[in-house]
């Protein structure tokens, strides 16, 4: 008698592993373009570089998709910056809108954000409409620097970031030393280089540091665009002992920007971008003494609220600084911003002398925020 043939088990299909190119961490100077330019006439007789189509998956929520790509030109940089500001205005509003406003008025917070045709009687860094304009003025200055490179190709252009443990503070009750960080950066650039420089102070949450401690850290640091004679960064790093960092391999990080319109424009908007991304520490790499910072998987709502508070207490022009020829660059940007603010339409809300009290009352009304004390921001000399 013939035995019944047993059906064979169907093998699972397996996809071949495709080789993936390892991308470096997100950086405003990272080149995705081929080294060989194509020759197209763009009115300046300069080579154009084809745009790369490579993208990298971002782990940060609510970040525009093209954050990691080069901009096409300076106008494209402005459009991307505007998108960032619009999105972040909504994000900061979400951090407070479901809270209690027992002794405060939500209208005051909307004015600090530049919402609903409202604005404050000064220009806080939290005003996203003002930040949008400020970014456009910075990008205009980056265009002037791009033209400077075309005229003087022997000049060295450097993108520098300065980080120090001294300017980190606890998110629950800390002090943001904006002026001190800005002054320290200016001092090392004046003392150990002949660079001209324009820079911006930024505050960023480190969402998991220190490990095991209630209340994590915020880091005040600077991003600086420098230009001048070549071969100065090694000397700068050797002598600038005021900057020491336990979570970065180098407290002063330097990169050479690529001479593309998209590179210069992207650097401009990167400096004054809304603080939508944080960092987190890989503690295994920290123990090994390796580079351990990476983009945070997400920034929580309480981080957004604290960033809103810090920026509301800081005039946006206090974030910008210059060294040598960079002083004139800063002044042109600030003058344009003041002129724009003077011609601004809408209702003005008097907040300049009561921002601190506003957030103190808000924290007192909301018991869920009982662990958070009002933050102190020192943005000028003598504070």
Could you walk me through the main structural features you see in this protein, from its secondary elements to its overall organization?
By secondary structure, this protein is of the alpha+beta class. The protein has one domain (65-378). The chain has helices spanning 74-94, 106-113, 128-151, 178-192, 233-239, 261-271, 283-287, 301-312, 325-342, 355-365; strands at 118-120, 156-162, 168-170, 175-177, 196-206, 217-228, 252-255, 279-281, 293-295, 320-323, 347-349, 376-378. Strands 2, 3, 5, 6, 7 and 10 form a 6-stranded antiparallel beta sheet that branches. α1 (74-94) runs antiparallel to α3 and α3 packs antiparallel against α9. The termini are far apart.
Secondary-structure map:
Blueprint lengths: L73 H21 L11 H8 L4 E3 L7 H24 L4 E7 L5 E3 L4 E3 H15 L3 E11 L10 E12 L4 H7 L12 E4 L5 H11 L7 E3 L1 H5 L5 E3 L5 H12 L7 E4 L1 H18 L4 E3 L5 H11 L10 E3 L5
Parallel strand pairs: 1-11, 4-12
Antiparallel strand pairs: 2-6, 2-7, 3-6, 5-6, 5-10, 8-9
Helix pairs in contact: 1-3, 1-6, 3-6, 3-9
Helix residue percentage:
25-40%
Number of strands: 12
* Radius of gyration, CA atoms, in whole angstroms: 24 Å
**Mean pLDDT across residues:** 85
What gross morphology would you assign?
globular
Report the order of strands and helices. Answer: HHEHEEEHEEHEHEHEHEHEHE
Distance between the termini: 100 Å
How is the quaternary structure best described? Answer: single chain
Beta strand %: 15-25%
Instruction: State the secondary-structure class.
Output: alpha+beta
By DSSP (H or I, 4+ residues per run), the number of helices equals 10
**What composes the largest sheet?**
6 strands, antiparallel
Total domains: 1
Spans of 5+ residues with little confidence (pLDDT < 50)?
14-27, 29-68
